[in-house]
Write a structure and sequence with these properties.
The complex is a heterodimer of chains A (209) and B (251). Chain A is built from six helices and 13 strands. Chain A is an alpha/beta fold and 209 residues long. Chain A has one domain: Rossmann fold, CATH 3.40.50. Chain A has a seven-stranded mixed beta sheet with strand order 2-1-3-4-13-12-11. A four-stranded mixed beta sheet of chain A has the order 6-5-7-10, covered by helices on one side. In chain A, strands 8-9 form a two-stranded antiparallel sheet. About 5% of the residues of chain A have low confidence. Chain B has 251 residues and is α/β, with parallel strands linked by helices. Chain B has one domain: Aldolase class I (TIM Barrel). Chain B contains ten helices and eleven strands. Chain B has an eight-stranded parallel β-barrel with strand order 1-3-4-5-6-9-10-11, surrounded by seven helices. Chain B is globular, with a radius of gyration of 17 Å. The chains are: A alpha/beta (209), B alpha/beta (251). Chains A and B meet through α1, β8, β9 and α6 of A and α2 of B.
Chain lengths: 209, 251
């Protein structure tokens, strides 16, 4: 059974739909510690603002409980950010599972000198970072059968910095942790549930850990 | 780097798509979920579903359809058509839409953009503008180009961005349906003027048109309908051709 952590951050439909598409219907949406502790796998979804989300985890005592889990745990987007040490969004102190900090992208207006010589490297870096980008330096069983440079879908304005726990790197304005892993904990800054066949494979890999 | 996006647009009336031919392996082209899945499998980066139903019943059918799309399709999708209140937006979000696009309702009441963006975030709000060039000026229209307004394109696009729209979907009514290409200079000026991503719509007739708007037009995404629905340019062929021209696309 998969437990999806309920800490009142809204819509989990895209995650449960994605699980359904890979044949997993055995999930519960819960904030009950016993259920979380005994589930085969735990998913920490996340939308919204980091400090508010952290406060909601803390209200339920889950901020200190989640780091004690021993089965595979997967954070998604803001869920992953909450597993880092801190976030610049609302100056949140986070759970400190991954040894890195979450920073805000600084918008980089880059004006190509001459539009007539088009070069696909030219682009204005807009924030949020939204759309399909690549993951490289893949080093985790989470990326079994995933090719270097595979495209996955991102929507975010804050990013986890590179660190010893980085298991996938993406470049946008600067290189950052597209995914993190430490012991039984995993987290993706991208949205595997919206990332087509690649995302489905990553979720499948997680379920098979 | 972020890939340029290719976005097929499906018009839906009373729960069924209204254009298209029967592709091999797809018996019912009217089935909006099946057609969307086919495009997703072929490499579409996003989908746009526009509800063109005129009745309340049609609208309700559309909401139901949106939940089916969300269950089946594993790439982001935007829904538009007839969204005029925050409740409409909430209903579609709950059904599983990743983004909504608003057009006429935002022209009538621009605060709608602020309301939806502050509740659900800018990434959820696409401002769609259908504008027509006349006497050297681009003016927004409503009701599929039938009604003129006094909203000047660049000013209105900028206002929408400031109010919280996260993306602009711009259609030139002078080019829509002509298959003569997009107005690339206007798109490039929009890109200079705005900091949100721009989706180019209306006018694609060839691979060159799409390549042009993504390069000279500096658009972040190209949306098209008939070239996909009538099987003229299969998505894998389009992506291969764009890739060969040095344009970053997801493959």
């Amino acid at each position: 059974m998969i437990a999806i952590v309920n800490y009142d951050t809204g819509n989990i439909r895209s995650v449960t739909n994605a699980l359904g598409r890979i044949g997993c219907t055995d999930w519960v949406y819960t904030d009950d510690k016993h259920t979380l502790a005994t589930a085969d796998k735990v998913i920490l979804p996340g939308v919204g603002e980091a400090s508010t989300a952290m406060a909601k985890l803390a209200e339920r005592g889950l901020d200190t409980f989640i780091p004690t889990l021993t089965q595979p745990v997967l954070g998604i987007c803001v869920g992953t950010q909450l597993m880092c040490q801190s976030s610049e969004e609302g100056n949140a102190e986070c759970m400190g599972i991954f040894r890195t900090k979450v920073k805000k992208f600084l918008e980089q207006p880059m004006t190509p000198p001459d539009f007539s010589i088009f070069n696909s490297q030219f682009s204005i870096f807009k924030v949020p970072h939204m759309g399909w980008n690549q993951i490289t330096n893949l080093r985790s069983p989470l990326f079994k059968d995933i090719e270097e440079g595979a495209y996955i879908y991102y929507v975010h304005s804050y990013y986890p910095e590179l660190c010893a726990d980085t298991i996938a790197t993406t470049h946008y304005i600067n290189p950052f942790s597209g995914a993190l892993g430490r012991d039984n904990f995993f987290g993706t800054q991208f949205h595997p549930e919206k990332s087509g066949a690649v995302g489905a494979q990553i979720l499948k890999n997680f379920l098979e850990l | 780097m972020v890939a340029k996006r290719i976005i097929p647009c499906l018009d839906v009336k009373d729960g069924r798509t209204v254009k298209g031919i029967n592709f091999e392996g797809l018996r019912d082209v009217g089935d909006a979920v099946a057609l969307g899945s086919k495009y997703a499998r072929e490499g579409a980066d996003e989908l746009v579903y526009l509800d063109i139903s005129a009745t309340q019943e049609g609208r309700n059918t559309f909401t139901h359809l949106v939940s089916r799309i969300a269950a089946e399709i594993d790439i982001p999708f935007t829904v538009g058509g007839g969204i005029s209140t925050i409740d409409d937006a909430s209903r579609l979000l709950d059904a599983g839409a990743d983004k909504i696009s608003i057009n006429s309702a935002a022209i009538r009441r621009p605060e709608l953009i602020d309301e939806i963006a502050s509740k659900y975030g800018s990434q959820f709000v696409v401002i769609a503008i259908d504008a027509r060039l006349a006497d050297g000026q681009w003016l927004a229209t409503t009701h599929g180009g039938k009604r003129n307004t006094d909203k000047e394109l660049f000013a209105w696009a900028h206002e929408a961005q400031e109010r919280g729209a996260g993306e602009l979907l711009f259609t030139s009514m002078n080019h829509d349906g002509t298959r003569q290409g997009y107005p690339c200079d206007t798109f490039a000026r929009l890109a200079e003027h705005l900091c949100i991503p721009i989706i180019a719509s209306g006018g694609a007739g060839s691979i060159d048109d799409i390549a042009d708007v993504l390069t000279h037009g500096r658009a972040d995404a190209a949306l098209a309908a008939s070239i996909f629905h009538y099987g003229e340019i299969p998505i894998p062929v389009l992506k291969q051709a764009l890739n060969e021209r040095g344009i970053a696309v997801r493959r």
